Amino acid sequence: MTGFQLAWITLSRRRFQTVFAVIGVAAACIASDLLVTFVRTQTSDLQQLESDYDLIVGPKSSGPELLLGGLKLEEPRSGLIPFALVRYLDRRTELNHRLPIYIVGETKGDPVIGVDSFYWSRPEGFESPKITAGRVWESTDEMVVGLHTADRLGIKPGDFVELEIKPAVSEPTDLSWQSTFKVTGIADHRNPAFDRCFILPIEGAWSYYRWAVQNGLVEKVKDDEAVSYILVAANPEQLEFVETKIHEGSTVQVARIHEEIEFLKTLARGANQIAQFLCLLVFLLAALSVAVLVNSRFDSIKSELGVLRALGYTRGEIAAWFLLESLVPVVLAVVLAAAVEFVLFTLFGGSLDQISIAGGLQWPAVWNFAMWVLFLAMSVIASAIPLYRLYRTDARTAMEGV
C-alpha cells in the first residue's frame, strides 16, 4: 500500500476533522487573497491620481477627502462652490490653467460631470483628452462619453442616451432627473476616472443643478451656476500667492495636489505593510493548526508505526504518508479557495471594477498564485515536527505498549 493510499484512508476515516481543516485553511487563504487584493487595488488607484495641476479647490473638507473627491469624480459631501470663483481665477495672470468640474451624479454605474470648453484645449505641457471617435459637443444637449464607459455600454457617436440621476441626499426620495443627450464623441484620458464618465457641457449640467435647487435637494449658492471642484495650475513660485488669493473672501478649501498624493502614498505603504503582516499571521496560524493536527495524529498512532516498520515499511514510505496526510487537505483547501474566489469575482467583479478607478481587475492575479503556493508550502512546513520525530523513533520504541 502506497503512502498516498495510507493518507487517503486515514483522512477518509477522520472525515469531520478533514472537512474542518479544509474549510479553515480555505477561509484563511480567501481572507488573505481578498485583503491583498483590496490593498493593492487602492495602491494602484493612487498611482492613477497623478495630475498636471497643482491645486484643487472645493468645499470645506480635509485635504485627502478633497483630493480623492476631485480626482476620482465623487460628489462633495459639504456642498458646492459658486462659478463666480472660476471667473475670478480667469482674471489672475499667475495661473497657467484652471479646470472647473461640476459632478451631476451617477447613472448606469458611472459619474456624470459637466466641464467648460477649456477642458478640451489645455496649454502646452498639459495632456489634453483625445477624441478617439466623433467630435466635441457643440450644444447643451450633446455629450462626450469616456472610452471605458463607451466600451462597457456599447455607446458610439450618434447615439441618443437618456441619463437618469437620482440625487444623493440623506433622506430617501422618489425624485429623479431625466434628460436625453446626443453622443458626439468618445474621449480617451490619462486619468482612468475620466474614462469612466459621461462628459456634458457645464451649461447642460447646470440644468440638473437648477432642477435640484427647485426641488430643495441641494443648497443654492450665490448664483445659479455652481461647480464641485476646480483644478488649478500655477507657476511654482506663485503657488502660495495663488492659494492666498483663492482663500480671500471665500469659504472654500484649497489643497496642494502633489503633497496630498505623497501623503496618501505614505499611508498606502503603511497599509500594505500591515496587510503583509496580517497575511503572514494568517499563514502562520493556519500552519500551526495543521502542525498541531498532524502532530497529534503522530502521537495517536505512534505504536502503529512500529507495526508498519515490522511489516517492512521504510521510514521514507511512512514519512510520505505523513507528508501527504498534511498536503492533501491543503491542496483541497486551495482548490476550494480558488473556486470560491472565482465565484465571488464572477458575481461581484463588476462592482469591484467600479470601485477601482483604474478598472480592469483581473483574477487570478500574480499574488493569488503566490498565496496558493505559500499555503501549499505550509503543509510541508507543518509536517516538519512529526517527520523529525518519526526519524528519531526506532521500531522497538514505537512497539512499546503494544
How does this model look, in words?
The chain has 402 residues and is an alpha+beta fold. It has 13 helices and 12 strands. The chain has helices spanning 3-13, 15-47, 63-71, 84-90, 147-153, 202-214, 239-247, 257-300, 302-310, 315-355, 366-382, 384-392, 395-399, and strands at 55-58, 81-82, 95-107, 110-115, 130-134, 142-146, 160-165, 177-188, 198-201, 226-227, 229-234, 253-256. A hairpin with a 2-residue loop joins strand 3 (95-107) and strand 4 (110-115). The longest helix is centred in the C-terminal third of the chain and has 44 residues, at 257-300. The two termini are 22 Å apart. The model has no long low-confidence stretch (mean pLDDT 78).
Spatial shape: elongated
Write down the overall mean pLDDT: 78
* Sequence stretches where pLDDT stays below 50 over 5 or more residues: none
Rg: 30 Å
Helix proportion range:
40-55%
The topology string of helices and strands comes to: HHEHEHEEEEHEEEHEEHEHHHHHH
Sheet bearing the most strands, described?
10 strands, mixed
The number of helical runs is: 13
